Amino acid sequence: MTQELERELERLRAGVARLTATLRARFVGQDAVVDELLAALFAGGHALIEGAPGLGKTTLARTLAGALDLTFARVQCTPDLMPSDVIGARILEEDERGSRHFRFEPGPVFTHVLLADEINRATPRTQSALLEAMGERQVTTHGETRKLEEPFFVVATQNPVEMEGTYPLPEAQLDRFLLQIRVVSPSMDDLVRILGTPPSMGSATVQRALSRAEVLRLCELAREVPVSDDVLRRIARLVRATHADDAQAGESVRAAVRHGASPRGAQSLLAAARAHALISGRLHVSLADVERFAAPALRHRLVLSWEGEGSGVSRDALVAEALSRSAKAESR
Question: Is residue 75 helix, strand or coil?
Answer without folding.
Answer: strand
